[in-house]
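Title: Comparing notes on inverse folding

I've been comparing how different people in this forum approach sequence design from structure. To keep things fair, I'm posting one structure and asking everyone to reply with a full sequence. Here's the target:
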């Protein structure tokens, strides 16, 4: 399996995933996100001062899980990777149009230039697992080289 197959599976499983981060004290946090791909980087819009953003500053290792549902035959996907927060205007302008499949202005009406509390979390995947039918239909692993 290659990363393109992982990307295609994430799109098939739906627009919502949960991202897990870890606080400086070691407390795990899981929150829903709507991630989108730009080539081989998984992006999600975040509050620049959110728990997610603060957590990845001290512990950049994260995981994303696309939830199991009857609509997707109980298939699931987990991606592990390294996250980094971007709040610079150049990145925000690049991502604002064309990367996300929803209108970012609904969450940050000031657009990229007038939304200082808005950032983007980039996740560079290092490994992934696809479980078909909660694993009973097969397990497919990918790992970065």
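Reply #1:
Here's my take.
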């Amino acid at each position: 399996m290659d990363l393109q197959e992982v990307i295609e599976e994430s799109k098939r499983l739906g627009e919502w995933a949960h991202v897990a981060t870890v606080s400086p004290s070691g407390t795990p946090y899981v929150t829903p996100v709507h991630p989108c791909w730009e080539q081989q980087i998984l992006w999600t819009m975040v509050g620049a001062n959110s728990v997610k953003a603060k957590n990845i500053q001290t512990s950049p290792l994260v995981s994303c899980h696309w939830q199991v549902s009857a609509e997707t035959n109980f298939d699931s996907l987990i991606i592990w990777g390294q996250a980094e927060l971007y709040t610079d205007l150049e990145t925000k302008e690049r991502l604002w149009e064309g990367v996300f499949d929803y209108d970012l202005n609904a969450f940050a009406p000031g657009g990229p230039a007038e939304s200082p509390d808005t950032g983007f979390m980039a996740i560079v995947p290092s490994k992934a697992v696809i479980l078909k039918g909660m694993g009973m239909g097969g397990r497919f692993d990918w790992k970065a080289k």
